Please model this.
Amino acid sequence: MAGHNHPTQTLTDLLTIASEKGRLSDLTIGLCGDLKFGRTVHSLITAMTRYKNIKFVLISPNELKIPDYIKEEKLKKNNIEYVETNDIEEYIDKLDILYMTRVQRERFFNEADYIRLKDYYILTLDKLKNAKKDLCIMHPLPRVNEIATEVDDDPRACYFKQVEYGRYIRMALILKLLEIR
Model:
């Protein structure tokens, strides 16, 4: 599924990770939420397979697990270590990056499934108590309620910086396309 990507967000995410962590290798990245339909998640996995010593913790309810083709073509094919779980707190202390995503209503065929899953993960300060002090919390935004607003003031919250980096990435791409220096 080559079309199921989000290239400008991936450039933004790579810039955020490089800026906040100082590297793009030797990282354990938790991806949380809608891993089945999330274009940003699929693109980030693809991009990060190019770097050394990357590990993924795939955190989702069973209905929203990462598709098998991503596991086969990206993770297994590139010998990328990964684990699947539905418990965000189980691995929080191991993560260098936590990439939260929202459950999108438009991806569901019936409202009952969306209602049941939309609040499955809500990141709170309490859930972050065992996380690393230098954890980088990312989100492609907009959020609905998957990150409590109390987390916004935590120094580990990088999603507003991520938006700023995204503005620069997209401005640079537009200037390049318009052939403006």
